[in-house]
Write the structure tokens for this entry.
Amino acid sequence: SVMDTDFLALLERAKQADANPKADDLRFDGQVAVVTGAGGGLGKAYALLFAKLGASVVVNDLGGSATGQGSDSRAADLVVDEIRKAGGKAVANYDSVEEGDKVVETALKAFGRIDIVVNNAGILRDKSFARMTDADWDLVHRVHLRGTYKVVQAAWPHFVKQKYGRIINTASAVGLYGNFGQTNYSAAKLGVVGFTKTLALEGQRKNIIANVIAPNAGTRMTATVMPPEMVEAFKPEYVAPLVAYLGHSSNEDTGGIFEVGSGWIAKVRWQRTGGYGFPANRELTPEQVADKWARITNFEDGRATNPETTQDSLQSFMENFGNVEEEE
Ligand code: NAD
């Protein structure tokens, strides 16, 4: 288990390490960042960091419960106060991300532009699949996937016009790998990955960069599943620097998936086995598939590749049309 004694010892040492307040070369003066769901948890850490680095920040938060009920302007207001007290620039927005145009409108009204969008707002409606209701499914999709789409939709024309934009969307390891009780959430989160990859392609020539993160952090959302020591240890402040970097003009990496938490950051890509090409001019039967199953599923034979584009993916299929068996 992650909570064994080694882990606790590591935690003790991490706690004693100094915070490193240096290295503020990556600044955002004159830029405007919209952070959704910034009234708490990860979003709050992003908003505080962007503001500290000179950005004007729209702190969006609906202020509802972790399961998406109710609303309250206090969540966003408290973060705005905190930023202003520290000498930063911020305004609050209390709309649901489902009304992305209003969120972006707040940035334009208050600061006259928009440069960075961090789609972070989120809720959970965990249920085993047998008990999943349409309401649980739809609400999770509306906030995570449709909300992300609506905010980007409103920001996009401004990004295109100014030939500059940085988008950081939020997926989850649960979207990449699955998790019991989260069919709704994992589907929405992998949806965010596909959305981001296509945005990256469409934005590339216009200097609009889009990446997606799968964070791990102790927040209200994870407090229900993580032990308290983990909630305390997995500080959102470990995640925020990656989001700031991805939001900066110096980052030109786009379409990337990053896992991040506890100070550890990694990039994720797809891997595909070398596969097995059956003759394209012969009838293919389920028995033949069964017969070659070990080859089809073998990642360890040195033939696996990492397709990066849909074209890369299609290549092997096209090639297999040349795999023709002579008549005997
Ligand atoms: P959190 O509950 O602390 O923060 C989410 C915030 O979003 C809340 O302040 C909430 O009020 C706000 N919000 C919810 N619905 C909204 C809506 N419709 N419009 C505007 N704001 C809304 O949770 P968190 O852990 O900080 O999660 C942030 C993001 O990271 C979420 O997208 C979550 O799915 C994702 N994520 C978190 C973890 C983790 O370990 N914490 C893991 C994977 C993914």
About this structure: The first strand starts at residue 32 and ends at 35. Residues 34 and 58 are 5 Å apart (CA to CA).
